[in-house]
Design brief:
It is found in: Cell membrane. This is Amino acid permease. The chain crosses the membrane at residues 34-53, 65-87, 148-167, 174-194, 224-246, 267-289, 309-337, 367-387, 399-422, 434-453, 465-483. Keywords: Cell membrane, Membrane, Transmembrane, Transmembrane helix. It comes from Flaviflagellibacter deserti. By secondary structure, the protein is mainly alpha-helical. The chain has a single domain, classed as Up-down Bundle (Amino acid/polyamine transporter I), CATH 1.20.1740. The protein has helices spanning 23-27, 37-48, 60-92, 99-142, 149-165, 168-193, 199-203, 228-234, 236-239, 259-284, 292-296, 302-311, 316-347, 366-387, 389-425, 438-456, 462-482, 492-498, and strands spanning 2-7, 18-21, 206-208, 214-216. The strands form two sheets. Strands 1-2 form a two-stranded antiparallel sheet. Strand 3 (206-208) and strand 4 form a beta hairpin. Helix 3 crosses helix 15, helix 3 runs antiparallel to helix 16 and helix 5 packs across helix 13. The longest helix has 44 residues, at 99-142. The two termini are 14 Å apart.
Length: 508
């Protein structure tokens, strides 16, 4: 545990105090290296893939099919700029802290803290969003009463928290299996959907009524852009769901065998896999006969709707279970990321240090994962009971999605700014991989993220959730100002930042 004394002099950062710790502190917080390129690819794709099963389709109500496609392209450009940037930074700064680590080196302790806080919101809330979609599928498959949804939330959290706690190797093997199955399910759907396509009749079946809202066109043949260019921009927050969480990969840096070589490969391969999958699902899911964009615009299980239209209701249980795999893949992998994100901030002293203790046998950050999961569940239950079970069930997914996306957008902006500052102020840092888009990619990321946030504010469910995000920010800012900044620890991220990149990463 922490021993007495502080770090002073040339090593100290203005406004913060580093307390010296002995070797036992890091021994209690050890991780294990296991992941190669394939495991990292599966972790990145698996984290995102649920967004191709549910969530993205709400964008049809704001942009129509053409609006969804163009919004998806714009968001893909943002994510390419972001992923190339973090591929460069993750190879140069191979620490578990990821976004916090990048911002800490570029913008100091307060910059690292706020970036880490934004990312913390994303990774605590995103599993909650995914489990609401899982529950919708389960309720639909088995005809369960939605009033019992919280029970399903708890069951899924317990199962996949256990899989993440009991060993890194087990966690990565589960990730690989469910990710490959999820992609196989999508490919099977694409092959099944192509013979049943009627693009003009079904994908273009959205019009606009006198109040400017989406209405169904009985014969299809509507406009590609029924809501115009403003509809494209309003659809950006929903298109984010096609790629959200690919940026979690650098959180696995200290569990990667060779992060400087493998991390950029895993991120880039994962991103291009997702671009192909996103295009195929946006094209084919609404084009299937008797499905259509209008129906999908309010569906919690769009892929299952597509399977039903093709194969009928007779195999709905089997098809539903198959369609669940993508949601399970993301739920499992984002719980992994949640634990590492909380662990890194705790190990460095930004969060209470007890959260970063790892399991004595399995060397996984079990405390961080348990506390993060309980926090996500608490948020879900608070919204559920505050709105009432009936209304809560209808809106909780949208409220949580807004919370997750807002946290992500702020963290993307901070990471892009960090990339630009690191290139400008720290050109001496070794960069085994360099972004082919350079500062241009980072600037595009910032611009698109800001515009997305601007249109997200217009969602009536935005304030219901984001106000609580602001409350969380206020509480943690007070904690860091009063307590945390006086108890920082020279973790690998902090050592690297204080040495201005001169210190190579070393395992404690």
């Amino acid at each position: 545990m922490a021993s007495g004394g502080t770090v002073t002099g040339a090593q100290a950062s203005p406004g913060v105090t580093y307390q010296k710790v002995d070797d036992a502190y890091f021994a209690q917080r050890g991780l294990t290296r296991y992941a190669g390129v394939a495991s990292l690819w599966a972790l990145g794709v698996g984290a995102v893939i649920s967004g191709h099963f549910s969530g993205w389709n709400f964008g049809f109500a704001t942009g129509g099919w053409g609006g969804m496609l163009v919004a998806g392209i714009i968001i893909a450009i943002m994510y390419l700029g972001l992923t190339f940037s973090i591929a460069e930074m993750s190879a140069a700064l191979p620490h578990t802290g990821a976004a916090y680590s990048f911002a800490r080196t570029a913008m100091g302790p307060w910059g690292g803290f706020f970036t880490g806080l934004c990312e913390n919101v994303e990774y605590v809330i995103t599993p909650a969003v995914v489990v609401t979609f899982i529950t919708a599928y389960v309720n639909s498959i088995f005809g369960l009463d939605p009033a019992y949804s919280p029970v399903i939330w708890v069951v899924f959290y317990a199962i996949f928290l256990g899989l993440n706690v009991f060993g890194l190797e087990l966690s990565f093997k589960v990730t690989m299996v469910v990710t490959l199955i999820s992609l196989a399910v999508l490919v099977f759907f694409w092959a099944s959907a192509i013979p049943h396509m009627d693009f003009s009749r079904w994908a273009l079946n959205i019009g606009v009524d006198a109040e400017g809202k989406a209405t169904e066109l009985a014969d299809g043949g509507g406009s590609l852009f029924p809501f115009g260019f403003s509809g494209v921009l309003a659809t950006l927050p929903f298109a984010v769901w096609l790629f959200l969480a690919i940026e979690q990969l650098p959180l696995a840096a200290e569990e990667s065998i060779d992060p400087k070589r493998d991390m950029p490969k895993g991120i880039v391969l994962g991103m291009f896999t997702l671009i192909v999958s996103a295009f195929m699902i946006v094209l084919l899911n609404p084009s299937v006969a008797n499905v259509g964009s209008f129906k999908l615009s309010t569906s919690l299980e769009p892929l299952l709707d597509g399977f039903r239209a093709i194969y009928g209701d007779s195999g709905v249980v089997l098809l539903g279970i198959v369609a669940l795999t993508g949601l399970i893949a993301s739920f499992h992998t984002i719980l992994y990321a949640q634990g590492r994100q909380i662990y890194s901030l705790s190990r460095a002293g930004y969060f209470p240090r007890g959260l970063s203790v790892t399991h004595k046998t399995y060397r996984t950050p079990h405390v961080a994962m348990i506390v993060g999961s309980l926090t996500g569940l608490a948020v879900m239950l608070a919204i559920w009971f505050a709105l009432g079970a009936e209304q809560g069930g209808a809106t909780i997914g949208s409220v949580l999605l807004n919370m997750a996306v807002s946290g992500a957008m702020f963290s993307y902006i901070a990471q892009a700014v960090s990339f630009i500052l690191l290139r400008k102020n720290s050109p001496h840092i070794e960069r085994p991989y360099k972004s082919p888009l350079g500062n241009v990619g980072a600037v595009l990321t910032i611009i698109i993220a800001v515009v997305t946030l601007g249109y997200q504010v217009q969602d009536p469910n935005f304030t219901k959730g984001v106000l609580w995000v602001l409350v969380w920010f206020a509480i943690m800012t007070v904690y860091f100002a009063v307590v945390g900044r006086h108890k920082l620890v020279l973790s690998p991220e902090e050592e690297f930042a204080l040495s201005k990149g001169a210190a190579e990463y070393k395992s404690h």
